[in-house]
Design a protein that fits this description.
The protein is α+β, with helices and mostly antiparallel strands. It has helices spanning 13-20, 34-39, 76-80, 83-88, 90-97, 102-107, 110-115, 121-124, 163-169, 271-277, 284-293, 306-324, and strands spanning 6-8, 25-28, 47-50, 60-62, 68-71, 173-177, 182-186, 209-215, 222-229, 240-249, 252-261, 268-269. The protein has 3 domains: 1-56, Uridine Diphospho-n-acetylenolpyruvylglucosamine Reductase, domain 2 (2-Layer Sandwich); 57-115 and 158-215, 2-Layer Sandwich (Uridine Diphospho-n-acetylenolpyruvylglucosamine Reductase, domain 3), CATH 3.30.465; 222-324, CO dehydrogenase flavoprotein, C-terminal domain (Enolase-like, domain 1, 2-Layer Sandwich). The chain is built from 12 helices and 12 strands.
Length: 325
């Protein structure tokens, strides 16, 4: 049962920002994550501010410089079905199509998918864990088969978003608006690792709103993809996933951006993979080296060592597919 809270549905961004300045206010986008967190007492809210009536926050549109603008309140399904996205940004189209279930893609928004809360069963359950203000992460010595193998300093969640690694690989930037200013935050810098602050997921302040996500014009020779492995093929979060954005000159990779999902508390940049493929042809030897580099430095927990071979196989298969495309 949901706790009591005040509900507001302003029709302008300015009015929404004023309401968010109130004590313990929460943004309501699609609500697929927010309402579950409130119901399960993961956190509380005195005021819920819906952005659903602000028309300017929706839509997929080409920009004058050849890029793409995604309104923050655009439902995931519109991105998955967009011809513009599919034509220019394959990784994002791939990621949007595998988010959750059809019902959740219809309701959930692109900004909400970037900003969702962790799916850790200790965080979502009746445990006063570190992320909720406690003193320890129960996953470290507990049931951790779905938890991280990178970046788990203090808190061992994995970031649940599929679109975040794809957008990060494609160099997307969030436009963020607060009461007094607007700023740009690369998606690759949006999320906060536990080593910096184990109590927050993003760099957003409580009175700030993502209004748009801007993708740069795709460079000539760009090939991009996203694939995840999950326990249930119908819908589930990633056990392991990889977003690739490689630029080719003929059959040589001239630049690469690679991010992993299901690996870390934030979308994890696989710099070793990028270094292994840049300036080279994707032949079997290079692909094998890149697959090995994808798990260099990994620190699996007692229950998730299987992710090592899973990531290696996934990265190798996706690079092989890209070499043949």
């Amino acid at each position: 049962m949901l706790p009591k809270f005040s509900y507001a549905r302003p029709d302008t961004l300015r009015a929404a920002l004023a309401l968010l300045d109130e004590r313990n206010a929460r943004i309501h986008g699609g609500g697929t994550d927010l309402l579950g967190c409130l119901r399960d007492r993961v956190f509380a809210a005195d005021t819920v501010v819906s952005l659903g009536a602000i028309a300017e926050l929706r839509g997929v549109a080409a920009t004058a410089d050849g890029g793409l603008r995604l309104g923050a309140m655009t439902p995931i399904v519109e991105i998955a079905d967009s011809g513009l996205v599919a034509e220019r940004y394959g990784a994002l189209a791939d990621a949007a199509r595998v988010v959750a279930s059809p019902q959740l893609r219809n309701q959930g928004t692109i900004a909400g998918n970037l900003c969702q809360k962790p799916r850790c069963w200790y965080y979502r359950g009746d445990f006063h864990c570190l992320r909720k203000g406690g003193e320890l992460c129960y996953a470290y010595d507990g049931e951790n088969r779905f938890h991280c193998i990178f970046g788990g300093d203090m808190c061992y969640i994995v970031h649940p978003s599929d679109t975040a690694p794809a957008l990060a690989a494609l160099g997307a930037v969030c436009r963020v608006t607060g009461p007094s200013a607007t700023r740009s935050v690369p998606v690759a810098a949006l999320h906060v690792p536990p080593s910096v602050d184990p109590h927050r997921e993003t760099v957003l302040e409580t009175d700030e709103v993502i209004t748009d996500i801007i993708l740069p014009a795709p460079p000539a020779g760009l090939r991009s993809s996203y694939r995840k492995v999950r326990a249930r093929a119908s819908w589930d979060f990633a056990l392991a996933g990889v977003a690739l954005a490689l630029v080719f000159d003929g059959d040589v990779v001239t630049s690469a951006r690679v991010f992993l999902s299901g690996a870390a508390p934030i979308p994890w940049r696989a710099a070793g993979v990028e270094a292994a493929v840049t300036g080279r042809k994707l032949d079997p030897e290079i692909i094998a080296a890149a697959a090995g580099a994808s798990v260099a430095g990994a620190e699996p927990l007692a229950g998730n060592n299987y992710k090592i071979e899973l990531f290696k196989g996934l990265v190798a298969e996706q690079l092989e597919a890209m070499a043949q495309s």
